[in-house]
Amino acid sequence: MSQSEMPTMRSRRLGAELRRLRTDAGLKVNDAALALECGQPKISQIETGKRGIRQLDLTTLLNLYKVTDEQQRANLKRLARDVHQVDWWSGQGPLLSDDLRDYLTLESDSSLVRSFEPCVLPGLLQTEAYMRAIFTAGAEADRVDTLVKTRLKRKDLLSGTAEFRLRVVIDTPALHRIPGPRALIREQFETLMETGELPNVTIQVLPLDIALPLAQYAPYTLFTMRGEPQVQVAWLEHMTGGTLLEQRPDVEMYTKAWDDLTAAALSPAESRRYISDRIKQESGS
User: Fold this and answer.
1) Do 163 and 51 fall within a single domain?
2) 235 and 101 share a domain?
3) Tens of pLDDT along 36-58?
4) Which of 203, 209, 213, 179 has the alpha carbon at shortest distance from 272?
5) CB contact at 8 A, 222 and 168
6) Which of 46, 56, 169, 186 has an alpha carbon within 20 to 30 A of 129's alpha carbon?
7) 223, 233 in Cβ contact below 8 A?
8) Do 111 and 252 sit in the same domain of this protein?
9) What burial letters (b/e) apply to 86-115, b meaning 16+ CB within 10 Å?
10) Model confidence over 270-283: pLDDT tens digits?
11) Are 166 and 202 a contacting pair, CB within 8 Å?
12) Residue range of the domain that includes 135
């Protein structure tokens, strides 16, 4: 990856963390520039994610910022190496938006993904038919096949590694808005049941009779990034793309909302019974 292809989600994360470490150490951009014997623009470009950083320079900065935790140093060095990683979706070109690429990067770099969906089923739990119906309604025709293939490929995370966990809360209306004939609706419910049996997947249903503050019904995803110390970020989806929240007060607000949701939702066992009942309803029995 050339410098001209930056910033990427990983380079922005690394830059933001280096900027935080520098300010926490009470140092200015010029202090970092003097340590690396470079100009201030280079430090600014690193901290905004517009360029990567060599391992030797990173070690110099971590020493300057007095970062002594070996696990934290190792994680930052790994992230610096991963800035240049070529991901499986890199060859899709303009058919995948920058926001979607950012989301895919966050998802693939996470050990835990927590998602709340009030209107649609979470992407990792959708059948191909459900995906195609969603994308056909909302995307350009020439992008539909690529978007479906990309979402199907994402599902490899569920069985590809023990380091990945998925927790979702599905609002009840989403379970009554599944498009297609009854056979496809039953297929989607059966997929929910099968996926919910995986040891790294937890599904909860939010019942209709639960009253929560209206602000908490917005769809969002919490990502817990791999490594120690754990870094958590929140991703908000909207009609024109997505927004990443990294500031601790913002993430804590959504974490609290998640705790409220999971406490109000049916337990995983009760959720399975609810979905099972929906299968019976769609089967006419």
Assistant:
1) no
2) yes
3) 999 999 999 999 999 999 999 99
4) 203
5) no
6) 169
7) yes
8) yes
9) eeebeebeebbeebbbbbbbbbbbbebbbb
10) 999 999 998 888 87
11) yes
12) 90-283
